[in-house]
Amino acid sequence: RLAVLIIIVQALELRAGWSQEPVQPRMNEEFLKQEKIYHSRGADGRRSYTTDRGLSQYAELLPSGFCDALGRLGSSDRWLDIGAGQGQAILDYYAPEDAAAPAEKCRGSGARARAVAISIEDRRTDNWKQQAARLGDDRVRYLSGKRLRQYSPEELGKFQIITDVYGGFSYTEDLSLFMEKVLGFLEVGGTFYTL
User: Fold this and answer.
1) Alpha helices in the chain, H assignment, sequence order
2) CB 97 within 8 A of CB 109
3) Within 10 A of 164 (CB to CB), how many other CB atoms are there?
4) What pLDDT does 5 receive?
5) Taking the model in full, what pTM does it have?
6) What is the 3-class SS of 147-174, one letter each residue?
7) Are 119 and 38 spatial neighbours (Cβ–Cβ below 8 Å)?
8) Order of all β-strands in the sheet with 186-194
9) How far apart are CA 33 and CA 28, in angstroms?
10) Reduced to 3 states, what is the DSSP secondary structure of residue 64?
11) Average pLDDT per run of 10 along the chain, which is 195 residues long?
12) What are phi and psi of 27, to 5 degrees?
């Protein structure tokens, strides 16, 4: 009976595979769309992809549980934001209590985690530079000029939470390598939030 069941399951899987469009062309189409977005330029000649998503947008876009997990982090924990752009989500996370109403539930009530923003291009604003100077490099860091795969574990360390909102995950040419790198930077029991 088990052999018959296995044959039936295999036949159903094979037939299901015939009715579907091949995976590779769809992946190639999606990759071409992402490359077009990545290489697009605005009127000023700069890349025109979104670089200013705040923490409230992260809360809307990322899977449920993100805000609660971020709010539970303590001062010795770490958050990595891949494709952070201007680092607005991290700035919102560190904003004074009265300025952070939309992101309140993501911040928790205790001390903030240390945060690292990664972006291919340096998109730091004056606001980032002022906040980073106030908080210090031990609390917030901004790294740019390299893709995630080019960072070593020694450079970045380990993180309890890693986020990617239309960042490297969307643009990677090698999803397996990207995920291998993300998992390498994730603490045991940590969480990767992406779209």
Assistant:
1) 2-19, 23-39, 55-61, 66-72, 88-94, 104-107, 126-135, 153-156, 168-171, 175-185
2) no
3) 24
4) 38
5) 0.73
6) CHHHCCHHHHCCEEEEEECCCHHHHCCC
7) no
8) 140-144, 114-119, 78-82, 159-164, 186-194
9) 9
10) coil
11) 41 45 54 54 53 88 92 94 93 75 66 93 92 89 93 95 87 85 95 92
12) -65, -40
Could you give the CA distance from residue 103 to residue 67 in angstroms, rounded to a whole number?
8
Query: Which residue has 């986020």 as its token pair?
Result: 163
Q: What are the CA-CA distances from residue 190 to residues 94, 132, 145, 162 (Å)?
A: 21, 25, 26, 8
Assigned token pair, 172: 């990677």
140 with 114: CB under 8 angstroms?
yes
Q: Closest Cα to residue 84, out of 160, 150, 163, 161?
A: 163
Q: Judging by beta carbons within 10 Å of its beta carbon (0-12, 13-18, 19+), is residue 139 exposed, middle or buried?
A: middle
